[in-house]
Amino acid sequence: MPLLGRGPALRGRAFPRPSSKWIICEQSARIRRFDSPPPRSAASRTVRQWRSLRSLIWGLALNSAIVRGVREVLYVALGGSLGAVSRYGISEWARRRLGDALPWGTLFVNVVGSLLLGLLLGLALREVGTRGHRAAFGTGFLGAFTTFSTFSNETVLMYQQGKLTGAVLNVVLNLVAGIGAAIAGLWLASKVPIR
Asked: Which of 12, 130, 16 is nearest to 68 (CA)?
């Protein structure tokens, strides 16, 4: 690698034309061919700088709002899939065991879900748990576990089949037991000791 010198020693020397294969390295005031390999120490310094830059970029990316948002969406998706499968299993079990007089499975998941969501809300008000936990369990699992739409459709179907007493009983049980369970969940959360 040709070395012309540093500082004032470069004055008065003819610099290569820009079209040639020579380049001026500003950091060391050296002129060298740009197709020649950089000095070993410069290469290792470049690698170290690249690694630290890469670490900085990954650190910023993993903690950015976008990635946190994506992470929460994944938590909700995971919790939602578990909640939906749980609701399906409980509804099928209740239909086989308790019969079709009332939609017992839907009543059970709505009441238990209201209790658990009340408990989760009460703990969140006391700043227990992380946003990711609340997203996974509250929005994801309990959002898929409980079902207002199935409750509404089962009630309308019972009414259309002439089961007026069953339809009214279904509405009363879901509303009274669900709201009572939510109140009980909030009360339980207030009794949980927090460290």
From this structure: 130
Instruction: Return the bridge partners of 23, or none.
Output: 32
Q: Which residue has 């969140």 as its token pair? A: 124
**Token couple for 45:** 């310094």
Place of tokens 């009980």: 184
150-163 per-position pLDDT tens digit: 999 999 999 999 99
State the DSSP string of 58-101: HHHHHTSHHHHHHHHHHHHHHHHHHHHHHHHHHHHHHHHHH-SS
Domain residue ranges in the chain: 18-62, 67-191
Indicate the helix (H) or strand (E) that contains 148: helix 148-160
Beta strand ranges found along 107-161 (DSSP E): none
pLDDT for residue 66: 65
Residues 186 and 189: their CA atoms lie apart, in Å, by 5
* Residue (of 112, 103, 114) closest to 154 by Cα position: 103
